[in-house]
Structure formats: structure tokens, C-alpha cells
């Protein structure tokens, strides 16, 4: 858990305690979290500036899938900085995205990744040297990060069912014969989510397909569930993870998709002192 000649870290029992220790020591590092979904937490001078996880779209996915930046333009800028060290500045300098807009998207992706990571218990974590990553924000304290994460968990947990269970649930449209209202009366972002809910996609898959934050998509799905427009779809159990396509449906063009939410997050899991892996426990509701 130590990094070169840096001050050794205390035996942190969970990820929030680790981030608090890194904050106290003003460390710049990357925390590699293993598990499902797992991911990376990027810390600069003790502040969390970015998180990456397969459980939620990152900045690249939010920009490309939403149609904000084209594939060709993205590839050209990325080729000029393969390490991501100056990628944010390159995107702004090339006029592909405004500085303030990129800061909002960067912060939103950070909170969304924290939310996704909070929905499962990590296997383990390791502190390494700082790894270059795409971000454009001043960083947030561990306390602020956890406050935002907890607020989102509590917001979704006010409804029946657990937040973690909702995140894993494949959604399908309700039978058109029993729809309580015409779908064309819905806001554009709800219509896009409804079109993407094909019975194979989880909320995470829908978020990747539409280029939106996981938390924002889950809020919209909860709204559609409450109005009887979508239903949970439970395929035969075979132990295999979701392999649904993460491509936006043709029925939902980029113009009908809402921009990514600024805040999307949830409380991070725990580890017992002196253990190499986290104890089994129920995820937050």
C-alpha cells in the first residue's frame, strides 16, 4: 500500500478511510480497486480529481455517445496526446468543447463513477504512482464526494427495492396494450431511455448507449417504472454477465438525448483492518 518513499498509509478499513488518509498527506497517486466493477481513483494533492470504472461512462463515453464530439475529431486529438496528460487542454484548444462545459462533464463523470463503485463491495485496493487521466476540475475532498454519493443513494433508496438491485435489472417496455399514457407525451430524455430499454440492457448498458450518467438514467427509469411504462425483465439465470450492445437505438437520435448530469454518485464500501479483501456485506440500499 506504500508508494516509493512516500509516507506510509495507515491500515485503512475501507476506501473512504483510505481517501481521507491520502487527503491528510496531500498525496498524488492512483488507487486501483479490484472487483466488480472495479476501477481507478485518481488523487492529486489529496483531492479526488477523477474515477474510472466499467460500471459507468467516463468523460470519453459522455462526449462521444451523446454526439457532443465526433469520433474523427476525438481520434485526432487523442493521437496528439496518447498519455491523456494534456488531453483536456487539447480538447478545449481545438474548440471541440468549452472549458466550463468540460469541467461540468468532468465533475459529473467523477460523481457518477463513485456512485457506480459504491454499488458493490470491492475485493481489494492498491495505491500506485499517479497515472495520467483525462479530467478538468479542481478536485473534491473525500468528504464532499461521500456526501454527494450518500445523497444519491438515499434519493433512489426512497423507492421500493434496493439501489444495487435496480442497477442490475434489465428493463423492457410495458405492453403497449396497457400503457397508461402515450409515450410521445414524454420528455425527450425519457423517450430515449424507453427506446433503449429492450429487455437486454441494464441501467448501466443504457447509460453507455445514450452517453448519459448512470445515476441520471436510473432516475429516469424509476420515473418510467412508477408510470408503468417499463417493467423489469428477468431472463433465465445462467450466471453470465450482461452482454447487451452499448449502442444507442436508432429511435433515439443524439438530439433527443439530455446532456449528462453534473452529479451522479454513492457511499463507498468497507474493508476490515488487517485484511487483504473486503468482508461480504449487503450493498447500500
Please give the largest β-sheet.
Answer: 4 strands, antiparallel
Number of strands: 6
* Rg on CA atoms, Å: 19 Å
Amount of beta strand:
5-15%
Helix share of residues?
25-40%
Question: How many H/I helices?
Answer: 10
Backbone shape = globular
List keywords for this structure.
single chain; 285 residues; alpha+beta; 2 domains; four-stranded antiparallel beta sheet; two-stranded antiparallel ribbon; 6 strands; globular; disordered N terminus; disordered C terminus
Short description:
With 285 residues, the protein is an alpha+beta fold. The protein has helices spanning 15-24, 59-65, 71-80, 87-93, 99-117, 142-157, 163-168, 188-196, 203-210, 214-226, and strands spanning 29-34, 39-44, 47-52, 124-128, 170-173, 230-233.
SSE layout:
Blueprint: H1 15-24, E1 29-34, E2 39-44, E3 47-52, H2 59-65, H3 71-80, H4 87-93, H5 99-117, E4 124-128, H6 142-157, H7 163-168, E5 170-173, H8 188-196, H9 203-210, H10 214-226, E6 230-233
Antiparallel strand pairs: 1-2, 1-4, 2-3, 5-6
